[in-house]
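Figure caption, in words: inputs first, then the predicted bound structure.
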Amino acid sequence: SFSLNDKVGLITGAASGIGLATAKVFLDANIKGLLLVDQTQEALDCVFQQLTSDEISRCDCLAADVSSGNSNYAEQAIKKWGHLDIAVLNAGIGSELKSILETDVKTWDRIMEVNARGGLQQCARVMVKRNSGSIVITASQLGLQGSPLLSAYSASKWAVRGLALTAAEELTPLGIRVNSVCPGPIVTPLINDMKGEDGNGWQRMADATLMKRLGQPNEIANAILYLASDAASFCSGTTLKVDGGYAKF
Ligand code: NAD
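Bound structure (nicotinamide-adenine-dinucleotide present):
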């Protein structure tokens, strides 16, 4: 079922957009414990202000940069609840629209280190001790195709998909399912920079979907809930495209 009763999870990038919507969907699905990870304590405090007291009693938070190897959020979840069943590795950054000819190496490196590192190893290391767990990685429809003016972002999401597929092959025999979602264009702060010089970037993205609209964060959160939950018990190595029909394959 889609219930997360008795499960403990963590979500990175939980203070905004898809991660925040996923946190709410997980809480609605009765998750027992949920660790919210994001860059700043301020952003996490803002999230806590939106939660009910019952939800707060099931949540903990940690300010951490997922690109640094210094924060062990998986261990924090273990310390608090004794086990970790679900990890949603979702933190990510976008970029301004720029051609390959104009993209600087600093931008390239930052996008790769945030989007493609993301904490899979630390989560797998704690899950493997119980031979059980479900990892869901937020990739992108731009990790299924090329994406003019977003070369670093697209490359980082292809990297994430390669990692997800490889992790599925290595970790499924150890009891850990690894799957990824590929969202289409979703209305979150991440796409604020993607309006383009003429300001019509969002319209173009909407027009490229079969539904002629942008998606909402909870439309991805529901897909993440499915993959994270026992309802997806036969899914590992799955790439679930949730993009309004943007990628035509
Ligand atoms: P968002 O900007 O609303 O949320 C991303 C969150 O990640 C933010 O709260 C941010 O603070 C956090 N974050 C960024 N870098 C971090 C770091 N180094 N350490 C910890 N936290 C960090 O964006 P979103 O659209 O909700 O993005 C969530 C995921 O979905 C990203 O991986 C993104 O690439 C992916 N995605 C988004 C879209 C879209 O159209 N919005 C499409 C495809 C994929």
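Residues 12-13, 15-19, 38-39, 43, 65-67, 90-93, 114, 138, 140, 183, 185-186, 188-191 surround nicotinamide-adenine-dinucleotide (CB under 6 Å).
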